[in-house]
Amino acid sequence: MKLKVLFIAILVIASCKQDKKAIELVSKDALNKETSEKIAQNDIDLEIYDYKGFEKFLNKKDDNIYVINFWATWCAPCVKELPYFEKLNKEYKSKNVEVVLVSLDFPHLYETKLKPFIDDKNLMSKVIALNDVDMNTWIPKVDKNWSGSIPATIIYKNDNKKFYEQSFSFEELEKEVQQYLN
Amino acid sequence: MKKTINLISATCLVLLISAFAIVKAPIEDGYKIGDIAEDFSLKNVNGKMVSLADYKDAKGFIVTFTCNTCPYAVAYEDRIIALDKKYAPKGYPVIAIMPNNVAVKPGDSFDAMQKRAENKGFTFPYLIDAKQTVYPKFGATKTPHMYVLEKTKKGNVVKYIGAIDDNYQNASAVKTKYVENAVDALLIGKEIEQTETRAIGCSIKV
Question: What residue in A sits closest to B139 (Cα-Cα)?
Answer without folding.
Answer: A147
